[in-house]
């Protein structure tokens, strides 16, 4: 498998990384055994980046990754583990804020190291900007963890151009994790150019818009009560109908190329630059296999133009999060 480097100073990664969140949280019930098997299949296929958050399943996702890596000695050395921290949750699973104070950073990393069963985290990042804490203080605290050997690289998540500049002036930043797909192209105006100016890579999550442009979503799709997409503006009501119409237009392009909708959507993200790694949130091996097929899809200039006509920038109906969660995104300010 070919590789890409996360920024000018970050780790080397396969073009596709595995987002592990859905194996433990937020997308309804999941099969833990299938999650472990999917992680193993990803490593066997050459995927090297595993992404998680300490608040996914309130630690359950980190424990799942630990179990997967412990089951096959030697796999830990094959992967880059990326961890987001700072999201605060109540016992009912509710989101109750963010904490990125230096003392909290060191507390969170201690628990993550224990749950993951490792002596270091490869990329460590605040999940959101804590409005009460200057980004310089948060990044400075992670920098101390880098010096101490507990963390290898610093990442950011869902922050805007000004915050990126301030963070990079404090410590080298490997990558920015942010939503980027055919339905979410807001980073193209300012955020992506600033990352490229500063030599910061991008790990793009939501490349299939949380399943919406996977080609497998339907109007009648049942969603569990604990599936946050049930409350997502893009997955609801008239917005869903409008977005599924875009998917059908994309399907026409995909079928002419002899590939699936998911594969052409992932291939589009990968075609936006060699400094972008696409995170695929596959919870099952069959979905992982389909996503990996995007690596065999080379899009020509004509293909890209046709995709642009099918799903032009700004065509998505509805915001990518509920208004309350949108207000927490520094990247949307």
UniProtKB/TrEMBL annotation:
Q: What SUPFAM superfamilies is this protein classified in?
A: NAD(P)-linked oxidoreductase
The cross-references to PROSITE patterns, in alphabetical order and at most eight, read: PROKAR_LIPOPROTEIN (PS51257)
Is Coiled coil one of the keywords?
Answer: no
- Per the database record, which ranges form the NADP-dependent oxidoreductase domain? 15-310
Q: InterPro entries of this UniProt entry?
A: Aldo-Keto_reductase (IPR050791), NAD(P)_OxRdtase_dom_sf (IPR036812), NADP_OxRdtase_dom (IPR023210)
Q: Which UniProt keywords apply?
A: Oxidoreductase
- Indicate whether Oxidoreductase appears among the record's keywords: yes
PANTHER family found in the cross-reference section: AFLATOXIN B1 ALDEHYDE REDUCTASE (PTHR43625), ALDO-KETO REDUCTASE YAKC [NADP(+)] (PTHR43625:SF40)
This protein is called Aldo/keto reductase
This chain's source organism reads Streptosporangium longisporum
What does the organism's lineage look like at the top? Answer: Bacteria, Bacillati, Actinomycetota, Actinomycetes, Streptosporangiales
């Amino acid at each position: 498998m070919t590789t890409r480097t996360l920024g000018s100073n970050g780790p080397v990664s396969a073009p596709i990384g595995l987002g592990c969140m859905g194996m433990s949280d937020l997308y309804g019930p999941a099969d833990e055994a299938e999650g472990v098997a999917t992680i193993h299949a990803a490593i066997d296929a050459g995927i090297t980046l595993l992404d998680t958050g300490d608040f996914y399943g309130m630690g359950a996702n980190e424990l799942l990754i630990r179990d997967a890596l412990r089951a096959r000695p030697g796999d830990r050395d094959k992967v880059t583990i990326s961890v987001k921290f700072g999201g605060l949750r109540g016992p009912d699973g509710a989101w109750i804020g963010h904490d990125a104070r230096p003392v909290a950073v060191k507390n969170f990393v201690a628990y993550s190291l224990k749950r993951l069963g490792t002596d270091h985290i490869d990329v460590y990042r605040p999940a959101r900007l804590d409005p009460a804490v200057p980004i310089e203080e948060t990044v400075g605290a992670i920098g101390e963890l880098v010096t101490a050997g507990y963390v290898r690289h610093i990442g950011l998540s869902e922050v805007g151009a000004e915050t990126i500049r301030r963070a990079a002036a404090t410590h080298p930043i490997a990558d920015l994790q942010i939503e980027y797909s055919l339905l979410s192209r807001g980073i193209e105006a300012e955020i992506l150019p600033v990352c490229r100016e500063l030599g910061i890579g991008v790990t793009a999550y939501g490349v299939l818009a949380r399943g919406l442009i996977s080609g497998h979503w339907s109007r009648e799709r049942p969603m569990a009560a604990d599936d946050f997409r049930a409350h997502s503006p893009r997955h609801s009501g008239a917005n869903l109908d409008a977005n599924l119409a875009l998917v059908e237009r994309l399907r026409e392009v995909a079928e002419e190329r002899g590939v699936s909708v998911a594969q052409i959507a992932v291939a589009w993200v990968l075609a936006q630059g060699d400094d972008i790694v696409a995170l695929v949130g596959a919870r099952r091996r069959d979905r992982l296999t389909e996503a990996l097929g995007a690596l065999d899809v080379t899009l020509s200039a004509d293909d890209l133009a046709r995709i642009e006509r099918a799903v032009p920038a700004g065509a998505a109906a509805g915001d990518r999060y509920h208004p309350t969660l949108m207000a927490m995104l520094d990247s949307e300010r």
